[in-house]
Amino acid sequence: MNEAMNPALPHSRPGTAVATANTVRGATTPTFELRFDSLFDAGRAFAFPCDGAGRVDLDALSERARCNYFFARAGVGRHFAHPAVVALPRAPASTLH
């Protein structure tokens, strides 16, 4: 598994599209995502919350996200590049006065 740590996420730029598994059961915010970039459409990818080793908690994904994850995995080498573990930027801590 490719573990490219890239703080500049392509889906944060205007004009790019990433299908994310944002329907995760649970309130924790992931700090990593497993990205399957398209081999043909630059800026398009599937991204799923994972740990630092690239392990995705399938039980925490919605049914649709789980299906997308299996689709992306099955398409590696044909439609998608090998997945990369990407560190997500951390939100600044809020300060209350």
| Outline type | globular
Number of strands: 4
SSE arrangement, N to C: EEEHE
Distance between the termini: 45 Å
What Rg, in angstroms, do the CA atoms define? 14 Å
Q: Which bin fits the share of residues in helices?
A: 10-25%
Oligomer: single chain
pLDDT averaged residue by residue? 77
Number of helices: 1
Unreliable segments (pLDDT under 50, ≥5 consecutive)?
A: 1-17, 21-25
Strand proportion, as a percent range, falls in 15-25%
Instruction: Strand order, main sheet: write it out.
Output: 1-3-2-4
- Give the class from helix and strand content and strand pairing: alpha+beta
- Biggest beta sheet attributes: 4 strands, mixed
In summary, what is this structure?
This protein is an alpha+beta fold and 97 residues long.
Walk me through the structure.
The chain is of the alpha+beta class. It is built from 1 helix and 4 strands, in the order βββαβ. It has one helix at 63-74, and strands at residues 17-20, 32-37, 44-50, 84-87. Strands 1-3-2-4 form a 4-stranded mixed beta sheet, with helices on one face. A hairpin with a 6-residue loop joins strand 2 (32-37) and strand 3. The longest helix is centred in the last third of the chain and has 12 residues, at 63-74.
List keywords for this structure.
disordered N terminus; alpha+beta
